[in-house]
């Protein structure tokens, strides 16, 4: 490793000043690294890295418009075609929609899983919450009709039809497309990562952040909000929620009992301090450093308060 560093990588740094390491995020070690290096990672990731001036200008404008109207929730609604196709999650879809998602999955030969049992995966908590499920969870958590909700996502699969129940329960729903002037977005619209960057900025700045799926963006937003002082991030326990949602929707669990159970499940899933989970020899299954950079969170916080595992 050191030989490669000095013979190959250092000359590249000297020549280009910046080197882009592609697809290395999931291969970076979480644990066992010197404290000063871990803190350097935090300073780079949460303070040093910046978006382009064009993205930052528009992102800050979005945040300013939302904040002028009061507190807001950023709902990272990961109910998008690519997510559903490749996860095999079709709960709430029509037969035709499920077939469309399956065809998309088969169109990519490098996607290893082809035949996926959607309901089995949902029961395991491996599917994003549907817009209808997210509506019930938000209501159970105590958010009311006056809550301002920013939808941080790309195009929702099923479009406005699938957002109907969410809009009925929360009329003050907005997206970047509805807040900004139509002339402001075209330069970003053909670049999904740049559109996601705008959502990222809003999500970090929100009063409450709620992801419906625990993917890469959700993890990094969670970590950034922890770094900024443990800002409120409600991290849904999807496996438990599916169980409660099904009981409520089949008439077994009355609303008041459902709402109480949802609140109890998430009491310790609000972005509070907790120790990063370490799994020996299984780094892909342990907690991601950038979601919980505990080594960087001690200043202003008693380190002994960082106790327990992820709930």
TrEMBL record:
Species: Gossypium armourianum
Topology class, membrane: Single-pass type II membrane protein
Pfam families cross-referenced by the UniProt entry: O-FucT
GO biological process: fucose metabolic process
GO MF entries: glycosyltransferase activity
The protein's name: O-fucosyltransferase family protein
Lineage: Eukaryota, Viridiplantae, Streptophyta, Embryophyta, Tracheophyta
Signal sequence annotation: none
UniProt keywords, alphabetically: Carbohydrate metabolism, Fucose metabolism, Glycoprotein, Glycosyltransferase, Membrane, Signal-anchor, Transferase, Transmembrane, Transmembrane helix
Pathway(s) per entry: Glycan metabolism
Similarity-based family: Belongs to the glycosyltransferase GT106 family.
Statement: the UniProt record of this protein carries the keyword Repeat: no
Localization terms from the record: Membrane
Cellular component aspect of the GO annotation: chloroplast; membrane
